[in-house]
Each structure stands twice: as structure tokens, then as C-alpha cells.
Amino acid sequence: IIPSMQSRGSSLLFVFLQLSDSIPAARKLSTIAIVGGGFSGLATAYNLEQYAEDITIYDISKPGIGGASAVSADASICTPGKSNMEGLEGFAATMKIIEKLEANGPLESSRIFNPSIELVRLIDTENDFKNWQRAARKYPDWLTFTPIPSSVVNTTARVVIKMAGIVDCPRYVEAFWKMIDTSHQSVHWRAEAVEDPVKLCQQYDVVILCCGASIPQLFSRSTPNNQPCNQMLDVKLVRGQNIVFRTKSHNAPDIKEAVICGDYIVPKTFNSHLNEFGLQSNGEQYLLGGATHEYLDSYDVQRDDRPDLAVASQLLLPQLNKLQPLLADQYQAVAANAGVRVVTPRTHFGKLPMAGRVVGGPRNLW
Predict the structure, then answer these.
(1) pLDDT in tens, 154-164
(2) Whole-number Å distance between alpha carbons of 123 and 323
(3) Strand 54-58 relative to strand 187-190, pairing
(4) Per-residue burial over 135-171, b = 16 or more CB atoms within 10 Å of its CB, e = otherwise
């Protein structure tokens, strides 16, 4: 679930504008290296292009392939009233980018954003009940808040988020890079791996790590001042698996809403998604359910991002069947995908995006 694909780059823009103390004035904003070409990497390049003479994005994969951005749950949502995500601003910024991408002509003449899906957030804690009730009163055009009996999935309220939709995430990344590559001559893509970010700092004025789960792996190979990675970055790696469900018959009722309550059920509305799993639509409906939270002890992302349908089903089906009662009788699990993401510590604001200088690293490493 993507609270705001664009706001991740915006937060980096904010801290980047404070770099005057770390870069000599004569070389300020000359060359920037961005490691990772997913949601945050592309948004960062898009926001910083006007401040730099040359930006190079390092990513071993082609745009839209690999990484957590390629296996996200495909829902772009707003969370008004939540102080950690600036939901209204983040949603508006994301939609502005999507409108530009679709205006420039999405790849294969397919839309990137489908606004026809209703997004339902089930409330299961007293604190969330108060927060969302307050948000619904403040933003009645965005939210509908309805208390429900507590016997329903142990929830106390149902929130319909009106400003929401489904995003074709791989196509979003691919089209985003195509737009940047076409309109911004100072931004370049280098399809190669970065082995040592510290050495990269010697080649560029600023190096920004936007490669998510690969960040701890980079520092496990070579850390500045021989510091352990967990002392430089307080992060953990989590494997998230999704399950693809298909209707058992053509007579099964269509599900038109995405439901979130810890886990989620999202209708898959783009045929390009099915191609990733070797599936074809012959009139059946497909749903995506997820995601597992499997904390990893190692930094071997390539080893740990392989899906396991049996494990995913064991971890997810009990809760997913509660979120969508039709799932058990009308749908069957046919495939799974997986991605490894990096998560930050939980604060009283929730899990905040991490944006800032790397503690203990070179002063131009962010």
C-alpha cells in the first residue's frame, strides 16, 4: 500500500536544500548520484533535477523491474488526519505526477491509474477509531465514517476513502522514467550495481540512497569507519508476500472494493499484472491479498525475495478470509509474489520515512 509515492521524494528534497553546510559553494548542486530507481529514487530525481547539473540513477534492473516498488499492493491512498503521512498533500502530489504520465501516453496505451475502485479501511483499535472519526469530520468530502458492530472482524468502524484508486505500479515506474528521460536531459540511468556507496561519494558531490532493502546490504560489505550497519541505520528488512486469487467460476460475484485492516485485499484491474505470474484473464476476476511481515536476519535480498505460496497462504489466509467473506468459497489461491522492503522503527507518529544524512558516513552521503 502506497500512502504517497511522490511525497517520499519531496521529503528528500526538503533535507537536500539544507546541504549548504556540507558542500563547498563552488561545487554546490553539481553532480548527484541516486542509488535505486523505484518510487523514491525517481521522485527524488524528478524533484532535484532543477537544482543539479547532472543526476545519475544507479539501478541494476530496468525501470519497473525488481525491488519492492514492482510488487507493491497497487493502491494509492490518502490518510487525512494522520500527521505522519501528510495524506492530502501526498495524494495530490502523486496524482499530479500520474496525470502527467498519462498525458504523455502510457506504455502500450494502458492507463496507469484506475479510480473506480472503492477503498475501505476497517478500524480495529480505539486510537484509530478516534483519529479516523476526527478526520472524517474534518474532511467529509474525502471520508465516510460508519461505526459497525464489534463482531465484524473485531472492528469497530468502517471508513470509505473516496479519493483513492488502483495504480499499475510497474507501469508507473516505467512511465515515470520515460517522462524524466525524455524531458530532463541532465538525468541519466546506469544499469549497474553499486558495491560501495562510500567510494561513490568520492565521484559525486552528493549520493542519495533510495534503494530500500539493498541499503543494509551495501553497508554490510563496506561500512564507513568499520561501523556495523545496525549502528549507522536503525532499520530492519521485512519480506512481504502477496497472494493472487482467482474466481473458481465465471458466476462468482465481482468484488469492487479494496479492504485494508492490517492486511489487505485489492482487486487486480490491470492485465499487465497477470502477465507477471504467467496468468491470463478469461473472464475471471483476480484479487491480490497481502502482505506478510517476515522479518529477516540476513541482508541477502536476492535470496529472500523468492515467493513461497504455501508459506504465504499459511500466514495470510486466516485474516484475509475475515476481510473478504467471499474469498474462501468463491476464490482460489493461484500464485504469489514477494519483495523485501526496509522498515524504520515505530514512533508515536507511526513508521516515518527515513530522510537525512547517514550517521557515521561521509558528509555527502544521504
Answers:
(1) 678 889 888 77
(2) 12
(3) parallel
(4) bbeebeebbebeeeeeeebebbbbbbbebbbbbbbbb
